[in-house]
Amino acid sequence: MNYIFLFLLICGSLSAAEDFSGKQEMNGISWMDFRQFPEKWELVTIRFRKDTGEMRITYANPLAMQALKEGKTDYPDGAVFAKTGIHTGVDPQFISSVVPKGIRRYQIMVKDKKRYAGTHGWGYALFDPEGKTFNEDPKITQDACYACHTIVENRGDVFSQHFSTTRYVKPIFTQEEKKVNTITYVTKAVSALPNNIRSQIPKWAKDVRWVEVEILRKHVFQGTLDEMKPLLEHESLRSKLPAIFASKDEKRFVLIYPGKSEDCMEMTQMTSISTDQEFKPVMNKFCLYD
User: Fold this and answer.
1) What are residue 57's DSSP bridge partners?
2) In DSSP terms, which residues pair with 257 in a beta bridge?
3) What pLDDT, in 10s, does the model give residues 31-48?
4) Sorting pLDDT into bands at 50, 70 and 90, what band is 6?
């Protein structure tokens, strides 16, 4: 009996500590199949994420690029977008500029309506600078990617719009031309919030603005919280109330609210409280520049 117990204990520990890192394939997407995308594919656009300080350079294979330029939202099987995420930092000899500091990750999304039917036909994969997977559950990560991309369902779940460095390209999708999906909020009383969130709310607030998008709340990983911060900041400034995004189980959340501080002088001070990997709240304060 003792041997059986020990065997089950060891197996249970191994299962709980499963390591997903170091692989060159994720969700059926192989890094080796796409590693040359920066040299072989056409540039789609470049974006800068203010929340993470990451520069993102997006490329598309011919199938994806053709559909993108034609303004189609039903991408054909075989369409692929690939993105290089780059760390940025300040050039110490030209401190007003932000420059690339090294590759952070690669992101690939592949259209296959049958294989990825559960995520609108798109498969998602993330790889580190060496083309290896991170130690994150592929299923959870893919579901979180998909949930975020539903924000642009009107664009076929593709955020990027074509941009050319050599000629003017008019954005195909504008608010006037297409119905734009938005993050919806509801006003909730602070007293109705769970204890772990209510304890972080400033005493002056009686109500909060609460993100009410079920698919986003259902599929949350740590990066989702970072992605929500700019949206919450905008809503908090608009409503003058704390704005909150929380996972469905309410263990993970990010909260942002405005305030005043001598450190920020006449500018608005924003307070951000976000849970870490162990669900512990971490506070950060920053001055909001106009």
Assistant:
1) 46, 84
2) 271
3) 999 999 999 999 999 999
4) very low
Tokens 């072989």 sit on residue: 40
H or E stretch including 255? strand 253-259
Kindly report the length of the chain.
290
List CB contacts of 11: < 8 A, sequence separation 6 or more.
Answer: none
CA atoms within 13 A on the CB side of 54: 17
Q: Taking a C-beta distance cutoff of 8 angstroms, is the pair 81, 93 a contact?
A: no
Q: Are 79 and 67 in contact (CB under 8 A)?
A: yes
Q: Look up residue 136 and give its DSSP letter.
A: S
Angle at 62 between CA 59 and CA 63, to 5 degrees: 110
Q: Which domains does the chain have, with CATH numbers?
A: 18-155 (3.50.70.20), 185-288 (no CATH)
DSSP state of 179: P
